[in-house]
Each structure stands twice: as structure tokens, then as C-alpha cells.
Specification:
Blueprint (H helix, E strand, L loop, with lengths): L1 E5 L4 H16 L5 E8 L5 H7 L1 H25 L5 E6 L2 H12 L3 E5 L4 H8 L2 H8 L4 E4 L1
Parallel strand pairs: 1-2, 1-4, 2-3, 4-5
């Protein structure tokens, strides 16, 4: 089984990683775990251009590695094997695209549970993934 763990570095990522550890230990055969962080693009093209592409890449890399570290720490402590990667882009679309490319059979992610108003106004990554993927999704609150 291939499992994609979507990590944003929040406390909800840590809770979801703990859930994933329990799931991994309950399975008869260890799954292949992919940990993915998607960093949203810088919203203002002018700001990105002014900073320069090297600075933007360095920023995305540093922020993504920090976000991944939360899940990686939980998984390492539990002796769960995994691979990590990150990408910059539209978060829900990148998660779904990665799952499709890699033949992922389950997506596990945390939910910040910001409520209906925030989902309506800002959009929710978990909601976006649920609406656009054909892969089963476990959302941990």
C-alpha cells in the first residue's frame, strides 16, 4: 500500500502523523509512506520578481523543510520509514497530482477545522483534496 501524508507543519500535522503511525503499526505489511509539503506560491508576482528567483527558491525550501520536520520527527521516533519531498504550487491541486503520479492508495492529512466561513472565504485544502481526488482520504482533526 502507498500512503501520501500531506504535511503543513502545524499542530494538526503532528496529530495526523501520530494517527498515521498507529495505522502503519496496525497493517500486516508496512506501507510505502510519502510525506509531501506543498508551499503556496508567493501571492504577488512583483514581490517574487523583486526578491529574485534564487531567494524565492531558498525561501520555499527553508519553509518546506521546517514544515516537513514536524511529521518527519513523529515518524522517525516511531521507526516508520518514509520519503519526503516538497513543491511550491496550489496546495490541493499539487497533493492530488502527486497522488495520481505516484499511484497513491490513501491520502492522510490533518485539518485545521477553521469552520464553514473560513472554508467559504479562504478555501480549505482538505476540502479541495476531497472534492478533486479519486483516492480515499483520511482527514484527522
Amino acid at each position: 500500500m502507498k500512503i501520501l501524508f500531506a504535511a503543513d507543519g502545524s499542530d494538526h500535522t503532528k496529530l495526523a502523523a501520530r494517527y498515521l503511525v498507529g495505522l502503519v503499526h496496525a497493517l500486516a505489511k508496512p506501507p510505502v509512506i510519502h510525506v509531501l509539503h506543498v508551499h503556496p506560491p508567493i501571492p504577488y508576482a512583483g514581490a517574487a520578481a523583486a526578491a529574485g528567483s534564487d531567494a524565492v527558491k531558498r525561501y520555499h525550501k527553508e519553509e518546506s523543510e521546517a514544515a516537513l520536520a514536524v511529521a518527519e520527527g513523529v515518524l522517525r521516533d516511531a521507526r516508520v520509514e518514509f520519503t519526503s519531498s516538497w513543491v511550491a504550487g496550489e496546495v490541493a491541486a499539487e497533493i492530488v497530482g502527486y497522488a495520481n503520479r505516484e499511484g497513491i492508495e490513501l491520502i492522510v492529512m490533518g485539518s485545521r477545522g477553521m469552520g464553514r466561513l473560513a472554508t467559504l472565504a479562504l478555501g480549505s485544502v482538505a476540502d479541495g483534496v476531497l472534492r478533486t481526488t479519486t483516492v480515499p482520504v483520511t482527514v484527522v482533526k
